[in-house]
Every structure is written in C-alpha cells, then in structure tokens.
Write a structure and sequence with these properties.
Order of helices and strands: EHEHEHEHEHEHEHEHHEHHHHHHHHH
Bound molecules: nicotinamide-adenine-dinucleotide, magnesium ion
Strand content: 5-15%
Number of helices: 18
CATH architecture of the largest domain: 3-Layer(aba) Sandwich
Low-confidence stretches: 335-339
Radius of gyration: 22 Å
Largest sheet: 9 strands, mixed
Length: 341
Amino acid sequence: MTENTIYHDDDATHSHIEEKTVAVLGYGSQGHAHAQNLAESGVDVIVGLREGSASRKAARQDGLTVATPVEAAAAADVVSVLVPDNVQPDVYEAIEPELEAGDTLQFAHGFNIHYDQIEPPEDVDVTMVAPKGPGHIVRRQYAAGEGTPGLIAVYRDATGDAHDQALAYAAAIGCTRAGVIETTFREETETDLFGEQAVLCGGVTELVKAGYETLTDAGYSEEMAYFECLNELKLIVDLLYEGGMSEMWDSVSDTAEYGGLTRGEVVVDDHTREQMETVLEEVQNGEFAREWITENQAGRPSYGQRRDAEKAHDIEEVGEELRSLFAWSDEEGNREKANAP
Ligand code: NAD
Ligand code: MG
Ligand code: MG
Ligand code: MG
Ligand code: MG
C-alpha cells in the first residue's frame, strides 16, 4: 500500500498564481467554478469560449472577461483546459500556437495527456488540479469559506516552478482549504477509468440489473425487485460515504450483515476479480482509450446503441413509475446532479 502526500493552505504560496493571467477554457461544471474562485482570489482571469457559445452570457453576468479560446490563451500565462475531454484535442490544436516558453497548460483530468492526445511543447509546464467534486460544489464551498478536496499532479516541469504554481492554483480555487492529494497523470487517469468502469458506473449498474433480473425471472414482482435492488442502494451508499464499510455494517440488521458477509463473495468471486484485472489491463495498455477515441471519430455508433438498450430496460420503466411516488425527493435535493465520475 502506498500513501500520497496531502497539502493544505500553509503549503501553498499564493504569489505563484496571483501575478499570472489565467485563461479558463470552457464555462461548464468545472470552468465556471475555477474561473469565479480564481477571480475572487485575486487572479486575472479570462474565460475562453467560442463565438456564439451559450456560456458566454453566463460568464459575463458573473462579471468575468470573455474572449475566444485563442485570444484567452494568447493573453494568458496559465491555460486551464476545462472543455469536455473529447473536445480538448481540437481546442488544443487551435490554441497551441499561443503557448510560449514558461507558460502552463493546466488540466482537471489526465486522459488527453496520459494517452498522448495532446502533446504540449517541451518548454511548457503541464499540471493538473482536479477537485474531487462537481463544479457547483467547488463554487459553493469556496463561497462559504470552505474548500473541496482535490488532486494535484505535475506531468512536465519545464520552469522548475510547476508544482508550486499548481499548488497555488489549487489554493486559489479553495482546494487546499480541505486538502490536496499528490498524484500523477497516470495514476489519476487509470484509477478514474478503472473505478468508473469496474465499480461505480459499469459495476454497479450490472449488479443492479443482474439482481433485478434474477428476482423477476423467479416470478417476483418488478416493483419489489426495483425497491430491493435499486432504490435501497442509496441508503447503503450514503452510509458507505459517511462512515465507510464499518458504519454500513453497523447500521443494517444483523441478518443483513451476516447474509452480506457470507453471500457477497459468492457473487463477486475470483472470476469477477480476474475480469477486473482484464479491465484494468485494457486501461493500462491504452486499449480502452484507443477504442473510445475510435468510437468518437466514427460518430459514436456503438455508444448510441448501448445507451438506447440501457434506456429500454424494464427497470427503467418501473423505476420511473415508482420514483414518482416519492414526491418529496426533489425538495430534499436527492436528485441533484451527482459528480460525474
Ligand atoms: P462541461 O461539459 O460541464 O463543460 C464544458 C464547457 O466547455 C462548456 O462551457 C461548453 O460551452 C464548453 N465547450 C464545449 N465544447 C467546446 C468547444 N468545442 N470549444 C470551446 N468550448 C467548448 O465540462 P466539465 O464536466 O466541467 O469537464 C471539464 C474538465 O474537468 C474535464 O477534463 C473533466 O474530466 C474534468 N472534471 C470534471 C469534473 C466534474 O464533476 N464535472 C470533476 C473533475 C474533473
Ligand atoms: Mg501566452
Ligand atoms: Mg431489504
Ligand atoms: Mg473520477
Ligand atoms: Mg471519469
């Protein structure tokens, strides 16, 4: 087991970023939060958005200067790339001529650098500050005087100052108020992809569907199968999030605890672990990245088919009906858009 260093406010020197001009490309989830937090921390910010982009109005209303991505990059020392990952290579191509020796290219996810979709010049620093939360939380926490934990990584240190500057960026968006964990582009990218594929998005939905289908195939009602295999997942996840596995096991009945401890490993067995290793290998050797890039270049045919099939699953129909019975769930904020992993 390895443990990574965690940085706090005291470790960061704001002057490394305060004297710089930062171009924030994109004004979506992360972009709006980074841009506003940086500006309120005293950093000169220019938001880079395409002519005609709907986000332009929002950025101006928030009191920020707006330019095209190329103009913003030209004026900036630090270019923070916060457009969607799949459009980053195209946006980068346009701004590359504006990067000067000693400038910084800053990311919130490592995919395009790690898989060589963006290859910045040798004399440019390449860093990552990735909040572990969606942008609206990053913004809300900062405004409340708090912070969202984040990750920091340096891919290329051309100036000798890359790490200090990234830490100052992390401080300026509020992350060091909570804690910033040292990582690498490789570790962040590979663990992110593996986690969302094997556990969070892929693993959980397949587990839910398999449980639901096992019950309905055995003649149980769709409503009961939905409640037991999907709806109640939230209670379990909330407990895991708050207090880890111990709190979850403490909170459920002894019957649930004994049954879970003995039967969980029957379902997720050595075969599943071997399959997880295969999924991880395809992340590590770049096979997944190549497949996803090709899929995008081809106009996402397989992605579209799989999306449609998932939407057509029985559990979605019964779920829509049953969720409407929980009239209070909107007010409680339970359906607030979660952090996209
Ligand atoms: P987003 O989809 O919310 O925002 C995209 C922004 O980019 C919008 O303002 C849009 O107008 C603009 N945009 C789209 N296409 C463009 C183009 N061709 N040219 C110029 N601008 C364009 O994106 P996001 O979720 O904030 O993701 C940004 C980065 O942050 C990604 O690298 C992502 O992996 C990373 N990240 C996201 C989260 C999250 O919770 N959303 C968390 C951590 C890291
Ligand atoms: Mg410049
Ligand atoms: Mg039960
Ligand atoms: Mg993630
Ligand atoms: Mg991800």
